[in-house]
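Take a record:
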Amino acid sequence: MGRVSQAQAQENRRRVVDTASRLFREQGTHVSVADLMKAAGLTHGAFYKQFASKEALVDEVTAHAIDEWVRCHAAPFEQYGGRRDAAQRDLIDTYLSSEHRDNAADGCPVAALATDIAREPEGGEARRTYARGVADLATYLAPADAPGGEGGEEGLVRLCTLVGALLLSRATQGSPLSDDILAAARAALAETA
């Protein structure tokens, strides 16, 4: 079997990171390397040509998933004519939707990875990346005049409400309570926006 070109190796790495990003959000970081590589359409041995360890992959996937999700969902305020409140309301409505609840693989990594990241070593790269993502989202959600660093208190409260409601809604999915949780959180956040 011939050597893989540098371009193909980069494409394989991207495919593994993209696949892991979806699987980790859907199933958690405990997904085995063998299952991950099978889902990516690559051999188990190819993993160790790309990554030093599974922990290194978790670090990279955490950064990738958060950066990608924020880029796609936390639209620049300029796209809303500079109206911060309109951009935030759009994010809140999208976040607290049944579509987001039902699609963890493409959903917010802050919610999906919270339990797994809490088990990562303190001071590790995955935790630092995750904390930076939390701070960025809180800042995005903060009122324009919010005091304090990392989004101010109101941005953090809004983010906690979003993440908590999404997690509870996913945990109660299939019961009427699931939709009630989303609706109650939307209503509570509408009062603060």
About this structure: Residues 6-27 form the longest helix (22 residues). The radius of gyration is 18 Å. The mean pLDDT is 91.
